[in-house]
Amino acid sequence: TLLKNRSKADQSQILNDLGLHQGQYAVLTLHRPSNVDDPAVFGRLIEALEVVQHDLPVIFPIHPRTRNNLAKGALGGRVEAMTNLRMIEPAGYLDFLKLTANAKVVLTDSGGIQEETTILKVPCITMRENTERPITVEVGSNYLVGTDPKNILKAYRDVMSGAGKAAGIPPLWDGKAAQRIAEILVQKLRK
Does an H or E element contain 26, and which? Predict the structure, then answer.
């Protein structure tokens, strides 16, 4: 889907609409209950974001679950005080693809975004204790850092200083899986 829609996403005007320039902002997504429902964990993530937003604008297409937790909890004031954290409504796929493809870094707890940033070779800091997509860490641009602000900020500083890891694309991540599957099925059916 990403490879098929990349040229369409390139036509998106979201960077212009938000006054952003390629490689000069971060993208943030947070929605997992383990991160946003527990005020202690959410507070640790906000602690790291307070630092990041001093360096770069952080574009935060905010998930309804996350928005609700901020509205009802004590952490909302800390988020509102971050002058360089820009909460926006959830973006459509093409706009979001344009945002992530042109970001300096993506901070997330999403599984799918780990894969997409790997394809795009955009550094991704995954704020979770584990991932169901380990190849994005082993081969790709993903840093699995947990929820400790020190670990998040270490990965962030590595990315910003250029000391981060070289990002590759895993074998067979070429957008042709369906074609290969169809060829295998045809071969099996011929036997």
Answer: strand 26-28
